[in-house]
C-alpha cells in the first residue's frame, strides 16, 4: 500500500468534517454525561470494536458494539478501543457513545485519525476516556498541542509510534502511554518483532502498549515479557471472542474470581423465575451446545474417575458458550499437603477454557481457601454432620450433593428432604443428586433452590445426554409444561 493511501484516509476525513462538522453528523451531548475512567489500568488488555479495516476489509459488518463490549467486560477487560472512522472502518461516534453509556465503568479509547482540537472536544463530550494520537500523521507542534489539550480535558492520550522518526518526534512529550504499532499504516504489513525492537529506543518513563497483530496468548506473553504494560487487540478480539479468556489470562487479567461470580449473579437476575441450572457430566460438543442453547447456566465437565469423564481437547475446542464452564475434580494432596488440580484442568483454567472448579473430593476448607481461581465446594450430604461441615467453606456457594456409598457423584441418588430443608434454612441452596424431569418441579416448589445440578437424570446413557429430556427439563422450568 502506498504512502498515498494513508493520506487518502485523512483527506477523506477532512472532507467529511467540512461536510458534516466534527461531530460527523452525530448528535453529541452539549455536556459530557458519563464518568471519566482512567485508561490502561494494569494488567492492561485493550480490546477493539471494529467492523472493518482497510487491510482486512469486512471483519464483522453486523457487529453490535454493545454486545461486543459486554463480551469484553465479562472477560475482565477494563479498556475498550472503539473505531469511529466511517469510510474505511465502518465505525461511528454512535458506537462509542452506546458502549460508554452502557458500560460507564469501562475506559473507552477513541480510535480515530484525530487532527485538531475540535476532534478532542467532540471525543470528550461523546464519552471517550482516551484518544489515539498518531505521531506519523501530525506535525510535531500539532502533536504537542493536541497532547496538552487532551490532558487539559481530563482524558488520556495513547501516542502511537511505528518508527525511530516517530520516537524522535514524541520524545519531548514524554507521553504517559506510548503505543507501538506492529502494523505499518502505509503498507499495512505487521511485524510482531518491530515493537520489541523499537521499545529499546524509548528512554522515558511510559506505559508501553503493544498494538496490532496479537492473535494468541503466546503473543500477549511475549509483549508482557518484553516490558509492555499492555496490549491492544483488534481483529482477534472481534473474530474470536472465545479466545478472550486465553488472551486475558496471558495478560494477567484473569480469570479473576469475581468475574465468575459476577456473571452468575447476572444470570440469576436475567431469569429470576427459575433456578440457575447446571448440566453436568457433559462429554460431547453436541450435548454442550444443546444445553447451552436451552439456557443452561453452567456446564459441568468431570475430570475424575467416572463413566462421564471429559477430555481436555473437547473442552478446548468447544468455543464460546453463554453458559459458564466448570471443571469437576476430585483433587489429590501434593507432597506439601496442598491440593493439586489435575494438570489438564489447570491448563484449561489458565487458558480461559474453564471458568471455575467444582471440588468434589475430600478437600478441607483450609486447603481451598485463598486459591487464585474461582471455585466452589461440593459436599456429599448424608447427615446433619455433613451439613455442618459444609458451613466451614469460604466459597460464596457450596453445592449439596447426595452421599451414595462408593460413588463420588452422578449417583442419581437424592438427599433426604429433611436435610435439604435444613440446608435451605442457612442460605441460597445449590442442590444436586437424583434430580430429573419427574421430580424437578416438586424440588423447585418445595425448596426454592438457587441452583439445581443434574447429570444422570437427563442422560440417555452414562456420558450421553438425552436431548428430549434436556428440552423437557427447560420447558418444565419455564412453566411451559405441567
Ligand atoms: O457425574 C459424575 O460421574 C461424577 C464423578 C465424579 C465426581 C463428580 C461427578 N459428578 C458431579 C456432579 O456435579 C453431578 O452433577 C452430581 O453429582 C449430580 O449427579 P446426578 O445425581 O446424576 O444428577
Provide a brief overview of the structure:
With 482 residues, the protein is of the alpha/beta class. The chain is built from 19 helices and 22 strands. Ligand LARABZUK binds next to strand 12 and strand 20.
What proportion of the residues is helical, as a percent range? 25-40%
* Shape type: elongated
At the fold tier of CATH, the topology name of the largest domain is TIM Barrel
Mean of pLDDT? 91
Computed over alpha carbons, the radius of gyration is 26 Å
Distance between the termini: 65 Å
Structural class: alpha/beta
Give me the CATH architecture of the largest domain, please.
Alpha-Beta Barrel
The CATH C-level name of the largest domain is: Alpha Beta
The largest beta-sheet arranges its strands as: 1-4-5-6-7-8-9-10
Number of continuous helical runs: 19
Amino acid at each position: 500500500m502506498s504512502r498515498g493511501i494513508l493520506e487518502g484516509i485523512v483527506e477523506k476525513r477532512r472532507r467529511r468534517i467540512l461536510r458534516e462538522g466534527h461531530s460527523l453528523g452525530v448528535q453529541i451531548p452539549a455536556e459530557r454525561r458519563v464518568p471519566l475512567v482512567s485508561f490502561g489500568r494494569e494488567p492492561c488488555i485493550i480490546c477493539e470494536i471494529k467492523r472493518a479495516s482497510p487491510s482486512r476489509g469486512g471483519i464483522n459488518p453486523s457487529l453490535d458494539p454493545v454486545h461486543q463490549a459486554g463480551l469484553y467486560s465479562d472477560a475482565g477487560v477494563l479498556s475498550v478501543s472503539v473505531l469511529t472512522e466511517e469510510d474505511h472502518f465502518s465505525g461511528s461516534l454512535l458506537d462509542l457513545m452506546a458502549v460508554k453509556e452502557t458500560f460507564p465503568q469501562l475506559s473507552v479509547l477513541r480510535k480515530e485519525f484525530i487532527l485538531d482540537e475540535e476532534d478532542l472536544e467532540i471525543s470528550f463530550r461523546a464519552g471517550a476516556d482516551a484518544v489515539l494520537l498518531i505521531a506519523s500523521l501530525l506535525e510535531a507542534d500539532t502533536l504537542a498541542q493536541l497532547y496538552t489539550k487532551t490532558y487539559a480535558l481530563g482524558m488520556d492520550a495513547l501516542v502511537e509510534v511505528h518508527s525511530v522518526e516517530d520516537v524522535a518526534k514524541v520524545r519531548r512529550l514524554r507521553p504517559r502511554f506510548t503505543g507501538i504499532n506492529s502494523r505499518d499504516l502505509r503498507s499495512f504489513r505487521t511485524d510482531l518483532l518491530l515493537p520489541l525492537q523499537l521499545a529499546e529506543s524509548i528512554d522515558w518513563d511510559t506505559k508501553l502498549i503493544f498494538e496490532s497483530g496479537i492473535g494468541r496468548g503466546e503473543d500477549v506473553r511475549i509483549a508482557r515479557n518484553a516490558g509492555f504494560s499492555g496490549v491492544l487487540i483488534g481483529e482477534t478480539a472481534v473474530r474470536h471472542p472465545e479466545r478472550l479468556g486465553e488472551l486475558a489470562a496471558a495478560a494477567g487479567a484473569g480469570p479473576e474470581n469475581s468475574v465468575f461470580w459476577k456473571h452468575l449473579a447476572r444470570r440469576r437476575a436475567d431469569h429470576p423465575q427459575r433456578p440457575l441450572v447446571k448440566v453436568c457430566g457433559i462429554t460431547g460438543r453436541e450435548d454442550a451446545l444443546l444445553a447451552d442453547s436451552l439456557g443452561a447456566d453452567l456446564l459441568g465437565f468431570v475430570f475424575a474417575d467416572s463413566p462421564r469423564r471429559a477430555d481436555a481437547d473437547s473442552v478446548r475446542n468447544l468455543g464460546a458458550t453463554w453458559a459458564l464452564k466448570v471443571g469437576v475434580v476430585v483433587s489429590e494432596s501434593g507432597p506439601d499437603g496442598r491440593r493439586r488440580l489435575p494438570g489438564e484442568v489447570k491448563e484449561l483454567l489458565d487458558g480461559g477454557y474453564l471458568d471455575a472448579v467444582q471440588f468434589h473430593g475430600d478437600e478441607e476448607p483450609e486447603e481451598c481457601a485463598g486459591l487464585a481461581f474461582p471455585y466452589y465446594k461440593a459436599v456429599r450430604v448424608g447427615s446433619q454432620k455433613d451439613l455442618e461441615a459444609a458451613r466451614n467453606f469460604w466459597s460464596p456457594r457450596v453445592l449439596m450433593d447426595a452421599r451414595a456409598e462408593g460413588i463420588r457423584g452422578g449417583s442419581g441418588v437424592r438427599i433426604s428432604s429433611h436435610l435439604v430443608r435444613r440446608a435451605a434454612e442457612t442460605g441460597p441452596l445449590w442442590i444436586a443428586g437424583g434430580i430429573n424431569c419427574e421430580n424437578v418441579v416438586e424440588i423447585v416448589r418445595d425448596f426454592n433452590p438457587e441452583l439445581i445440578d443434574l447429570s444422570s437424570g437427563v442422560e440417555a446413557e452414562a456420558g450421553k445426554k438425552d436431548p428430549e429430556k434436556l428440552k423437557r427439563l427447560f420447558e418444565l422450568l419455564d412453566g411451559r409444561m405441567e
